[in-house]
Specification:
The protein is an all-alpha fold. Helices cover 78% and strands 0% of the residues. The protein is globular, with a radius of gyration of 16 Å. The N and C termini lie far apart (35 Å).
Length: 115
């Protein structure tokens, strides 16, 4: 039951992310497929066979690959978030910690293969 619930929540977040530019779709669908594989094989099979969502899931599973366009999109989003954070009245510790964390994520992301 836990795996099915996790898969459904991640599917829902992924679908919402398809319509909201600030919420990523693919990471949630990756988790949904993973959780589905643990407790809902039919959902996993459906996600992997889906014409739009299946290729990124398969590319990640087979090669841990992230397309260049996704890398650029994530990087621009992170930079925009950092700029907004700096212009906000957030505490200094947050203004320093969040960009440092995002820099590590960006470094990791750009080290992933693209094919």
């Amino acid at each position: 039951m836990f795996w099915r619930t996790l898969a459904l929540v991640c599917m829902a977040l992924g679908i919402v992310g398809a319509f909201l530019p600030v919420l990523p779709t693919t990471p949630f669908l990756l988790v949904a497929a993973w959780a589905g594989g643990k407790g809902w094989p039919q959902l996993e099979a459906w996600l992997v066979a889906h014409p739009r969502w299946g290729p990124p899931i398969t590319r990640w599973r087979d090669h841990r690959a992230v397309p260049r366009s996704a890398k650029w999109g994530a990087s621009v989003t992170m930079l925009t978030s950092v700029a907004l954070l700096w212009w906000s009245r957030a505490p200094l510790a947050l203004q320093l910690a969040v960009p440092a964390f995002m820099a590590v994520v960006a470094w990791w992301l750009w080290r992933r293969p693209e094919t």
